[in-house]
Amino acid sequence: MPKRAVDYVVSSGNVFADLGLPNPEEALAKAELANKISVLIQERKLTQAKAAKLLGIDQPKVSMLLRGRLTGFSLERLMRFLLLLGQDIKITVQASPSKQTHARVLVVAAAEKIAAMQTEEFFSQRRSRADREAFRRILNRQGGEAPFPEDAWDPSDSEYIAPSRRSQKTA
Q1: pTM above 0.85, yes or no
Q2: In the chain, helix, strand, coil percent, each to 5?
Q3: DSSP per residue over 43-92, as a string?
Q4: Cα–chain center distance at 110
Q5: Model confidence at 97, in pLDDT bands (50, 70, 90)?
Q6: Which CATH class is domain 16-84?
Q7: For labelling alongside 14, which of 23, 34, 106, 137 has CA 20 to 30 A away?
Q8: Ramachandran angles phi, psi of 12, nearest 5°
Q9: Which residue has the higher pLDDT, 62 or 14?
């Protein structure tokens, strides 16, 4: 039996843009924030009723939020929920790279996922030199920084300090 060719399209990294939906960057940002809210609610083992009380909304809205039904939830409202759940929110404005055709909105959680993927690739390329402790140190960095080539951990160096923290340690 002949094999059928599988048709596929490589993703842009934003499923909402790939589907041609309006405002795909906003939709992705809302989805990332809603996912973080959902994770926090699960980690705290809150019922939907308790989460609703904490967030100042009714239980059916919590249900909608947890199921990804985000119509009616603005970015600002989702950020307010994160604040109510005890999370800090960091907003960074920076120039768009010149090779990029348009500016975009990124949620740090998305940036951290990309950094984690880059970290995985980094260690798969350096498997013989990598160890779990170095991997853990890089994943625990603030702000979702991608790994640096000099991050490969030397097992003989028991006082390893990540490059991003070396200047802080020596100061």
Answers
A1: no
A2: 55, 0, 45
A3: HTT--HHHHHHHHTS-HHHHHHHHTT--TT--HHHHHHHHHHTT------
A4: 3
A5: confident
A6: mainly alpha
A7: 137
A8: -80, -10
A9: 62
